[in-house]
Amino acid sequence: MNILIIEDEPLTVLGLKQKIGAINPVTVVDSASSVEKAYELASRNTYELIILDVDIKGKAGTGTVERMKALYPGTAMLIITDLEEGIYGLPYMKAGADGFLWKLASSAQFDEAIRAMMVIGKYASTALQHQIIQESQVNRSLRYVNPLMSISERERQVMNHLIAGKSTGEIAAILNINKTTVGTHKMRILKKMQVNSLIKLIEKVTMLS
Questions:
Q1: What would the mean pLDDT of 82-105 be, rounded to a whole number?
Q2: What number of CA atoms fall less than 13 Å from residue 49's CA on the CB side?
């Protein structure tokens, strides 16, 4: 297994190498003191795991993580940082990191994180796992909100007439509004329902009603 450590603190690099060696003595470990040097090494070697200290000189934000994952999609990435996990853990994981470890974590947590990254390529503390689950549940709930709930009473009237096959002129006459207003309502309805045609609107309303 080949691992790249991106870290500008020699003692941290030494500590990580010792922990990695204790888990798998035959692992090849390279280190880079800057992101630029890391790209240079990664262009010549294939790594199964990258350990990145985002507090490295010059800083490495979520954009760096996104770029690295785009360049090396098959490489697992563990973030280590002084930044608080509760605030920064989720954003870095959403950017593409496969693991996040607070530098002030216990030695046992370091061992657990590195072992997990080497074996399965994933790691998150219990607290971060809960955050990820909560985020997923919120996103799932938002995805399943019925778009019909966002339709106003007037839009619903227009929509019902559209579904019934009435023309713009007929709807304008029935509701005593001008055709331009009917057209505006129609565009809003299609946008809210996330469809681009009357046929798709009918299908979606039928499915959700």
A1: 87
A2: 27
**DSSP code of 148?**
G
Upper half-sphere CA count for residue 117 (Cβ side, 13 Å): 33
User: pLDDT (tens digit, 9 = 90+) per residue, 34-53?
Assistant: 899 999 999 899 999 999 99
φ, ψ for residue 28 (rounded to 5)? Answer: -95, 125
CB 117 within 8 A of CB 123: yes
DSSP-derived 3-state class of residue 194: coil
Q: How far is residue 11's CA from residue 9's CA, in Å, rounded to a whole number?
A: 6
pLDDT over 90 percentage in the chain: 47
Instruction: Please give the pLDDT value at position 106.
Output: 87
| Backbone region of residue 4 per phi and psi (left: phi > 0; alpha: psi in -120 to 50; beta: other values) | beta
pLDDT tens for each residue of 17-39: 999 999 888 899 999 998 999 99
The structure tokens 């690295």 sit at: 68
Q: What are phi and psi of 152, to 5 degrees?
A: -75, 170
Q: How many CB atoms lie within 10 A of CB 98?
A: 21
Q: Which residue type sits at 197?
A: S
**Is the distance from CB of 178 to CB of 172 less than 8 angstroms?**
yes
Structure confidence at residue 98 as a pLDDT band (50, 70, 90): very high
Exposed, middle or buried: residue 49 (CB in 10 Å: 0-12, 13-18, 19+)? buried
Q: Tokens for 163, please give them.
A: 């579904």
Task: Provide the CA 55 distance to its chain's centre, in angstroms.
Answer: 21
